[in-house]
Amino acid sequence: MASGVANRAYLLGPDLVLRVPRTEAFVADLVKEAAVIPVARAAGVRTPALVTFDASRTDADVPYMVLERAPGVDLAEIGAGPGGTWPAEGVFREVGRELARLHRVTPAGVGELTGVPVEYDPDAGAPHRLVGGLLADGMLDAEAARWLGGWFDRLAERIPDGPPSRVLVHGDIAPQNLLAAPGPLALTLTGIVDWGDAMWADPAVEFAKTPLWGMPAMLGGYREGGAADGSYDWEARVLRYHLTWALARLRDPTPVPAERHWTAPPASRLLGILRFFASSPPEPWPTLA
């Protein structure tokens, strides 16, 4: 099957999928998935059930996992998107509702989960240090650095002070991890897969690996699911993550052409932000630019 960065995937007949870590370095992620998947399913999230997790290394030189197979193919393979054959807004809205269920899972509610780390937010000055470093490295001119610093200042005004409550996040909500099946009129979400990046974190970080063009629908579904606090400026916080990570990629601009994820090309995030704001996005996004 189409495989990810961490694991190779194989079909075991029509109903099961075998996942094997590519190297020893990715074993910890598979152990984490074995702990997280049952919790996510108990919360009502559409993700394939765990059938077997074997860490004994009796049958293979690394642990392995067998999962039920969800129908459909991933959005990256379908080519869903603004210019693709299939519009994906409905799938992203469904994903938002699924994340609303997942983000009700807290450490207080389920206790520690094996291998699931706590992701700490960068301090308020981190984006400005990033911009200053890019200026010093010659990656930005002085005017662009001032403009970006002002943009981060305006976003900060819309984001409450203090760390957000941490919840269980999938950590890699990207097209290659969203399975969908074509219906008579549109795509339907059939499963969210690959929990190797799960962590306890700010729920807004969950939206940082989805292309911005899918964000209005995803946040719309998230609000419909009842998890979005009305006092929390979700769009501003999500945009800060996208902008920060796009600029950080400039400091490590090495292409990785073998990777399937949309952020592998160094310029993808910056171009995605430009494309999104040039496409007349709905309110409140224009007020954030």
The structural domain count equals 1
- As a whole number of angstroms, the C-alpha radius of gyration is 19 Å
Q: Which percent band covers the strand fraction?
A: 5-15%
CATH level 3 topology: Aminoglycoside 3'-phosphotransferase, Chain: A, domain 2
How far the N terminus sits from the C terminus, by CA atoms, comes to 40 Å
| 3D shape | globular
Q: How many alpha or pi helices? A: 9
Order of helices and strands: EEHEEEHHHHHEEEEHHH
Spans where pLDDT lies below 50 across 5 or more residues: none
* Spatial strand sequence of the major β-sheet: 1-2-4-3
pLDDT averaged residue by residue: 92
The total count of strands amounts to 9
Q: Regarding CATH, which class?
A: Alpha Beta
Helix content: 25-40%
- Looking at the overall shape, the CATH architecture is Alpha-Beta Complex
The oligomeric state of the chains shown is: single chain
Folded structure, characterized:
With 289 residues, this protein is α+β, with helices and mostly antiparallel strands. The chain has a single domain, classed as Aminoglycoside 3'-phosphotransferase, Chain: A, domain 2. It has helices at residues 27-42, 75-78, 89-102, 107-110, 126-136, 142-157, 215-224, 234-250, 268-278; strands at residues 7-12, 16-21, 50-54, 64-68, 73-74, 167-169, 178-182, 187-192, 199-201. The strands form three sheets. A four-stranded antiparallel sheet has the order 1-2-4-3, with helices on one face. Strands 5-7-8 form a three-stranded antiparallel sheet. The protein has a two-stranded antiparallel sheet with strand order 6-9. Helix 5 (126-136) packs antiparallel against helix 6 and helix 8 packs across helix 9 (268-278). The longest helix has 17 residues, at 234-250. It is globular, with a radius of gyration of 19 Å. The mean pLDDT is 92.
